[in-house]
Amino acid sequence: MRLPTVPPTAGLPLQFGDLLPWRGGDLARDLAAWLQLPEVQLECSGTSALMVALRALKALEPGRSEVVAPAYTCPLVALAIAQCGLQLRLCDLRADALDLDPRALRGLCSAKTLAVLPTHLCGRVADVDQALACARAVGAYVIEDAAQALGARNGGESVGMRGDLGFFSLAVGKGLSTFEGGVLVAREASMRAALRQAGASGSSPGWELRRCVELLGYAALYRPSGLGLAYGRPLAQALSRRDWVEAAGDDFGDFIPQHALGRWRQRVGASALRRLGAFQREAQQRAMGRVARLQALGLEVVADAAAGAQGVWPVILLRLPSGQLRDDFLQSHWGDGSGLSLPFVYVLPDYGRYDHVLGTAGGDAVSRARDWAQRLLAISNSPWLDDSRFDRLLSDLQRLLPRSG
Ligand SMILES: *Cc1c(COP(=O)(O)O)cnc(C)c1O
Fold first, then answer.
1. 108 alpha carbon to ligand 1 midpoint, in Å?
2. Residue 326's Cα: distance from chain center in Å?
3. What single-letter DSSP state applies at residue 100?
4. Per-residue pLDDT of the chain (405 residues; tens, 9 = 90+)
5. How far apart are CA 153 and CA 169, in angstroms?
6. Do the Cβ atoms of 353 and 250 come closer than 8 Å?
7. Which mutation among 42, 45, 47, 48 tests ligand 1's pocket best, with the greatest number of atoms within 8 A of CB?
8. What is the residue with the minimal CA distance to atom 7 of ligand 1?
9. What DSSP string runs through 125-154?
């Protein structure tokens, strides 16, 4: 008997009723209410949202040209920065937390710095205050990359509100999905006005039609019976070619489309949003139980870097004792549909294929980030990874662990 394919993250499945245009509401209004914010701005992807944010900041500070991001992040961040004509600087990570290293960050920040991007990777909340302190000291802005953290909170507020601005992704696999979509938020009304000014408001019928078809495909196939075809097969093919970059979905092209998020897809998102709170609460409960069991085995589960924050749980992120052990465990289960994956395969300079957008950032020190990249492993927190399958993963992992004592 073949077990169903578990998706790599806990994406919210769509229901047939979500597709009926009269069912959905106004996504911008409903999302702002759900996040308890005065206003949000919709864009066609998280990457496009980041580009809008960068253009808005560049208009405010035309003399500044550098953007500091973690060395271990989504390659789309590097592509977006390059496409805005800005120079990326790569910041190494802390040894004790999946977050920007403050010493490295201070070393990179200068009068050239336009923005710093603390990143809430895999739903874990970064320490934005620390990034703010470094950025403010040189007059730079802070953009919270909350692409993977819609619903996460810090200090009683949505992430994205401690920095000057923040963005979420509505791409497949990042929680709520319009197949591709992005959301911009900002604390100050003046910054929100600057974002509106820089927003990508033009419609693109070609791209929108394509995204509508893709969203229908997602609605049809994002279920235990459909994922073998839509996710499992291409994954197995990539793995058989030993192409980890494609298997992890880290293979991006240079071109970033920018257009308005279409009406129908907004309505689908607004309809699904009504179930997101309950879905995330359930995900958190499932994660808490499983995190406790992983920790009982002596495993290191990555936690929020910001004290007292409430992250979200698309995956449970482990830092394994060695890269070899991580690779061995991943190889034994990646292709079998048990929901293992990598947040990203490499630190940005190690892909090679993104060198053309790194520029001088290729020379920035990234050794601790590289160590994280080699030892991290994400276990899906999808409801379709049931207890018996999680138990099997756990006992297989336990067998690989060095015996203590
Ligand atoms: C996915 C992702 C992005 C880009 O978002 P898209 O909606 O896919 O364009 C940016 N940053 C991080 C950390 C991401 O994971």
1. 23
2. 21
3. B
4. 578 899 999 999 999 999 998 888 899 999 999 999 999 999 999 999 999 999 999 999 999 999 999 999 999 999 999 999 999 999 999 999 999 999 999 999 999 999 999 999 999 999 999 999 999 999 999 999 999 999 999 999 999 999 999 999 999 989 899 999 999 999 999 999 999 999 977 889 999 999 999 999 999 999 888 888 888 888 989 999 999 999 999 999 999 999 999 999 999 999 999 999 999 999 999 999 999 999 999 999 999 999 999 999 999 999 999 999 999 999 999 988 899 999 999 999 999 999 999 998 988 999 999 999 999 999 999 999 999 999 999 999 999 998 754
5. 16
6. no
7. 47
8. 46
9. PP-HHHHHHHHHHHT-EEEEE-TT-TT-EE
Written as one string, the DSSP assignment of 308-352 is: T-B---SEEEEE-S-HHHHHHHHHHHGGGTS-EE-S-SS-GGGSS
For the purposes of burial, counting CB atoms within 10 Å of the CB of 239, is it exposed (0-12), middle (13-18) or buried (19 or more)?
Answer: middle
CA proximity to 37, closest of 167, 224, 130: 167
Q: Which residues contact 370 (CB under 8 A, 6 or more apart)?
A: 71, 72, 346, 347, 350
Class of the CATH domain delimited by 1-405:
alpha beta
Q: How far is the CA of 327 from the centre of ligand 1 (A)?
A: 24
Q: 35: Cβ below 6 Å to ligand 1?
A: no
Token pair belonging to 203? 């419609």
Residue 397 identity: L
Please tell me the distance between residue 189's alpha carbon and the centre of ligand 1 in angstroms. Answer: 25
